[in-house]
Amino acid sequence: MTAVNGVDRRSDRIGGRLRRAGAAALVSWAVVWLAGCAVPQPAARAPAPQATPAPVVRKIPPIPLTGKLLYHLLAGDLAMRRGSMDFAFKQYFDAARETRDPRVAESAARLAGYAHRKQLGLEAAERWVSLEPENANAQEVAVVLAVRAARNDKALAHLESLLALPDPVSGRALLRVAGVLAAGPDRDAALAVFKRLAQRRPKRAVVHLALARVAFQARRLALAAGAAGRALALRAGWSPAALLLAEVRIRQGHAESALAELGRVVDIHPRERGLRLAYARLLLQAGRIPDAVREFHVLVRRNPKDADAIYALGLLSLQAERPKDAQGYLERLVKLGVRTNEAHYYLGRIAESEGHPRAALAEYRRVRQGELGLDAQIRIARILALQGDVQAARTRLENLRRHLPGMAVRLYLAEAGILREAKRYRQAMTVYDQALRRYPDNNDLLYGRALIAEHLGELQRSEGDLRAILARDPDNAMALNALGYTLADRTTRYREALGYIRKALKRRPNDPAILDSMGWVQYRLGHYPEALGFLRRALKLSGGNDEIAAHLGEVLWADGKHAAARKVWQAALRRHPDSTALRAVVKRLAP
Fold first, then answer.
1. Between 340-353 and 307-319, two packed helices, what is the crossing angle to 10 degrees?
2. Whose CA, among 213, 296, 490, 530, lies 20 to 30 Å from 422?
3. Is 578 exposed, middle or buried (0-12, 13-18, 19+ CB in 10 A)?
4. How far, in Å, CA of 17 to CA of 420, rounded?
């Protein structure tokens, strides 16, 4: 662990979240968003395909509106408004049987995707297909519902009908169907159908690409690579197939060769914006940040209003600790009126880190939506507390809890963190007690209370909360580390402490805080060489954390290496001149 007085050593996961929220957000946005990770959707609720194909001119003759048809439509609409999906579906299905209007059959088929009425849904979709045989969307829905109804022969027949439609409509529709089925619970059935289709249509590149996409989502990487390769063999330099093949080969562990080949395809299609953006994200995912930055710069040169590329460069500049560059990119987004929510948030972070709280508050107050909106509100509260108005900060967080009950735990943690930073430890304990009465099994709350209890000298309560976490989650590295460090620092149970820290380190071998704890317990056991090894590694991995530097200097001092200790402390103080941990250890050992 890090720092000097109990609670501060282990604040990384609780109060420290507020201090380092920007780093966490950068990981979240710069790695997840920039690397293009997909967000899985709830497959069980997925309806028939919703993507919009190329516009189709629907020539529908006048349909007589009989009393029976009108009843079914009105009853279905009313039932849907009331949430009675099964009854609504029955009414639309009866209406579809009553009329030759394809729009009614379409409504019945699509509603079936939500109501999980597979067989009847397929019947409605086929009714729609019979009324509009050249409507690609009708064939798409029929394929999906046939697969979900385990009617693979029918699915294959509808795919054949889809492929008989003119290009490029048929190809786009086929890939949409593959995407919907690959994201749903019927991947294996879909895979079987597309394999049969590829055997029937061995010369259609789009068929092999569709098979590759389903196989990739089903984690059948060899099959996906083979199908994507066949698509490329049939259509040389085809960027969608090249991109998918690169993703498959990266997943197989061949990142360098995959990216090199994809780079050649990008050179062949230099003006394909989507291809270059995907290539840049894959470079980023592979850790080739300078190469990714180069590609984002190309995108911005080609289109100075490319918001995705500008945003990427802003985040990467923040990650590289170039705040002025980042500020320039983010201000461009504000001027463009695109991604303004994210731009104002990160402009606030920059202002806050540079010691301009008023400017930070102004930026945070412009953040309105989503996860960043909530984090901005928390950061506003923290700035108010740092300016001395702790009560205003608490009132803001209490109001947020009332309006956002689903975020209550996070807001309790934020309030307790603010009180801890203000050294109001008893009030922080009260907040944790209040929160745990509502959420008694929440590990984050138990962990936070354990840290405060340890700081207040209530070691038995601290140990009890950490053991409660470990009783439910024996491999919780955070709790193992905290318990091990507390025992090493505040008791003489060093061997027991060593056991907990070893378990934590096994789960997170490169975690600087756990390496610091291991160094500290080795120091307590009198194993100075081992302690110094762990602490030096922890300091390097942490990027020069002041609290770890305080520990390293203390062990060097105890080992008689006074000059080396002073050198470590002085270097750390140049980076962290206001560090309480460093000043305390220097005052105690080398006044």
1. 20
2. 490
3. exposed
4. 12
- For residue 492, count other CB atoms closer than 10 A to its CB: 10
At 133, is the secondary structure helix, strand, or coil?
Answer: coil
Residue 311 pLDDT grade (very low, low, confident, very high; cuts 50, 70, 90):
very high
**Percent of the residues in the chain that have a pLDDT greater than 90, as a whole number:** 71
Q: How far is Cα 526 from Cα 292, in angstroms, rounded to an integer?
A: 48
CA separation, residue 379 to residues 11, 14, 126, 373, 530 (Å):
17, 14, 55, 10, 40
Closest by alpha carbon to 536, among 560, 495, 568, 508?
568
pLDDT at residue 134 in the model: 86
Alpha-carbon distance of 459 to 154, in angstroms, equals: 68
Please check the confidence at residue 2 and state whether its pLDDT lies above 90: no
Helix/strand/coil (H/E/C) assignment for every residue in 16-63: HHHHCHHHHHHHHHHHHHCCCCCCCCCHHHCCCCCCCCCCCCCCCCCC
Supply the pTM of this predicted model: 0.73
Distance CA 487, CA 353 (A): 35
Enumerate the H helices of 151-254 as residue ranges: 152-163, 169-182, 187-200, 205-217, 221-234, 239-251
Return d(Cα 285, Cα 94) in angstroms, integer: 51
3-state DSSP assignment of residue 216: helix
Peptide bond into 64 cis (omega under 30): no
Give Cβ neighbours of residue 129 (< 8 Å, ≥ 6 apart): 135, 138, 139, 142, 158, 161
Q: What is the mean pLDDT of residues 513-520?
A: 97
The rounded distance, in Å, linking the Cα atoms of 143 and 177 is 7
Q: How far is CA 63 from CA 105, 114, 510, 568, in A?
A: 13, 27, 70, 86
Kindly compute the dihedral angle of the four CA atoms of residues 325, 331, 336, 341, in this order, to the nearest 10 degrees.
110
CA pair distance 302, 298, nearest whole angstrom: 6
What per-residue string of b and e applies to 60-77 under the rule 16 or more CB within 10 Å gives b? eeeeeeeeebeebbebbe
Check residue 166 and report its DSSP letter.
P
Average pLDDT over residues 280-287: 92
| HSE of 130, CA atoms in CB hemisphere, 13 A | 13
Residues 541-568 pLDDT 10s? 999 999 999 999 999 999 999 999 999 9
What is the 3-state secondary structure of 263-296? Answer: HHHHHHCCCCHHHHHHHHHHHHHCCCHHHHHHHH
Pick the CATH number of 494-591 from 1.10.10.10, 1.25.40.10, 3.30.565.10, 3.10.50.40: 1.25.40.10
Cβ neighbours of 456 (radius 10 Å): 16
* Structure tokens, 591: 């006044």
Locate tokens 């609409």: which residue?
A: 77
Residue whose structure tokens are 């972070």: 349
Instruction: Output the CA torsion sign for 467, 469, 472, 478.
Output: negative
Write out the H or E segment, with its range, that includes residue 588.
helix 580-589
Q: What is the largest CA-CA distance in the chain?
A: 99
- Residue 227 CA to residue 224 CA, distance in Å, equals 5
CB 532, CB 562: distance < 8 Å: no
Q: Amino acid identity of 15? A: G
Q: How confident is the model at residue 125 (pLDDT cuts 50, 70, 90)?
A: confident
